[in-house]
Design brief:
Length: about 500
């Protein structure tokens, strides 16, 4: 049989590992979803050298490359895990190179051994090559390829070594002078990296003009194909300037004029671009293109790159810091409002009249959302659009903390009174049938009087009542919302109505 030698294209599944400092594994098994770990195997702490016997914490015997990907993404996505991972091929290392004390050993021989030989002419490469898994032994590849009259052309002397294992080193033998080492005979590697985590580009840009700020925010929500997240906040004082600075690790090298009495207010627009969604361009390009379209104060723009997990967990990171400083378990006189676009500038003025910018603690969020993303069949209440086709409305979150060391119980009562005042003015109907001045609605509303609830739900009230009597006729559920009083029988007339 004539033996056609192939060497130029061996597609190997291999994974390269970014190693972390050794440390006990597994903070949260949940991160690894469906993976089944073994406590140990007969091979996981063993190699040819019989010199080192490092035991891993657990062993993974992957059934597919996806399993390895899940493992590495899970580890990379968590800022907390410090586990290391070692691939084990055939274990013919001498000094524990495929071991990891207290880490995770991935035994590559569990991967399905599908060897696919492509003959010259039927593959797109124009040469003969083999597709193999990283755990395949060279002897297995030889047997399979000989069946079709082909063979790799660069070898090791001994064949019971894995393809991934020798490609981690070189792979040398008597053919090396002629064809080069095995690593020179690879066409392509599928690489599962230790940097598998998706990245988020997160940008903050500062404004001192509310109109320009909101116009730019609205521009961003009109570009969902480019932008994945839009928020923003009012910068009332030094503390809010540094808002969520732990999650947003940028060095803000400027000082805003926020001195007492200056009454100057700044606005920070935030947006993010997730790189996993982008097919043809990269996140940096998209961010630059967006920035070119914005009109923030020149130079006052900052971007950071964080993991997808850390981005979504940004408030959790702040929580840890606030708890450490004793600022988490304090009273929170929060108020959230949906404000129609037509009323947002007036609402901003109302806020600035009602709150004292210097001692405001906590974030004051303000950002647009789109009405057509809401299902009108739910009981959530949005303000009326004005004009009727206006799709943009705003969410404003006045997420204040009242630290007892600086805000007494009287001070807390004052803050709650201020909130009620804001709600009253912002939700007031227009005089003499004219449109309301602001026309806002509360999000997460808190009312205790029937007339207020009725007004809050507006045209949705009757439907809301009907659903309540259909699904919870005795008003057993959710007493804390203070909408309905408990009934003791269906004929109980006193409790058939909402609370008074
Ligand atoms: C008897 C014997 C004969 C040998 N003859 C030769 C020879 O002729 N020529 C030669 O060049 N070498 C030779 N070697 C050395 C051998 O090539 C290396 O030790 C090789 O690493 C062993 O492969 P393995 O599959 O057993 O790897 P393992 O010991 O399992 O792993 C070796 C390294 O590769 C990594 N690794 C394994 N699989 C993967 C993968 N899929 N993705 C990423 N990393 C992976 C491991 O984490 C580890 O760091 C010989 C060794 C022995 C014991």
């Amino acid at each position: 049989m004539e033996l056609a030698l192939f060497c130029t294209r061996v597609t190997v599944l291999i994974f390269l590992l970014a190693l972390y400092s050794p440390c006990k594994f597994i903070q949260s098994p949940v991160e690894f979803g469906s993976l089944n770990f073994l406590q140990t195997t007969t091979t996981s702490s063993l190699d040819f050298g019989r010199i080192l016997f490092n035991s891993p914490s657990v062993v993974l015997r992957p059934q597919s490359p996806k399993d390895i990907s899940i493992l590495l993404s899970g580890l990379s996505a968590s800022s907390y895990s410090k586990a290391t991972v070692a691939a084990r091929g055939a274990g013919h290392s001498i000094h524990g190179q495929s071991q990891t004390p207290d880490g995770i050993v991935v035994e590559m021989d569990s991967l399905p051994n599908n060897i696919v030989i492509h003959r010259k002419g039927d593959g797109e490469a124009g040469v003969s090559y083999a597709d193999v898994s990283g755990g395949t032994l060279w002897v297995e590849l030889l047997r399979e390829s000989l069946k079709v009259g082909l063979a790799p052309r660069s070898w090791t002397d001994y064949l019971y070594l894995s393809i991934g294992g020798t490609l981690s080193n070189g792979g040398i033998s008597g053919q090396t002078f002629k064809y080069g080492p095995q690593i020179s005979n690879v066409l392509q590697l599928d690489v599962v990296t230790g940097k598998a985590r998706p990245i988020v580009k997160w940008v903050r840009a500062f404004y001192d003009d509310f109109e320009v700020f909101t116009r730019d925010q609205e521009l961003l929500v009109s570009k969902p194909d480019m932008v994945d997240y839009v928020e923003g906040f009012m910068v009332l004082n030094e503390q809010s300037l540094r808002s969520s600075y732990i999650a947003f690790p940028a060095q803000l090298d400027f000082t805003l004029d926020l001195s007492k009495g200056s009454r100057k207010v700044y606005y920070c627009l935030e947006f993010a671009v997730h790189d996993y969604q982008l097919l043809e361009s990269n996140a940096d390009q998209v961010v630059e293109e967006i920035k070119r379209q914005l009109r923030y104060i020149p130079m006052l723009v900052y971007s950071v790159e964080v993991s997808y997990f850390d981005f979504l967990n940004r408030v959790g990171m702040e929580e840890v810091s606030l708890r450490r400083r004793g600022l988490w378990d304090v009273p929170h006189p929060w108020l959230n409002m949906f404000v129609p676009k037509s009323g947002i500038a007036r609402f901003k003025d109302l806020l600035l009249e009602s709150i004292s910018a210097e001692d405001f603690e906590g974030p004051l969020l303000i950002y647009p959302i789109l009405r057509d993303k809401w299902d009108s069949n739910t009981s959530a209440v949005l303000p009326k659009a004005s004009p009727p086709k206006e799709n943009v409305l705003y969410i404003v979150g006045i997420l204040r903390s009242a630290n007892p060391s600086t805000c007494s119980s009287q001070c807390l009562r004052d803050l709650l009174r201020h909130n009620r005042h804001i709600v009253q003015v912002a939700t007031a109907a227009g005089a003499g049938g004219s449109p309301p001045l602001i026309g806002a609605k509360q999000y997460l509303p808190y009312y205790s009087v029937q007339s207020q609830w009725r007004e809050h739900f507006g045209s949705k009230w009757q439907r809301f009542l009907a659903r309540k009597s259909q699904f919870d006729p005795l008003a057993v559920l959710a007493p804390g919302q203070s909408i309905f009083q408990r009934k003791y029988s269906l004929s109980d007339p006193t409790t058939a109505h909402p609370s008074q």
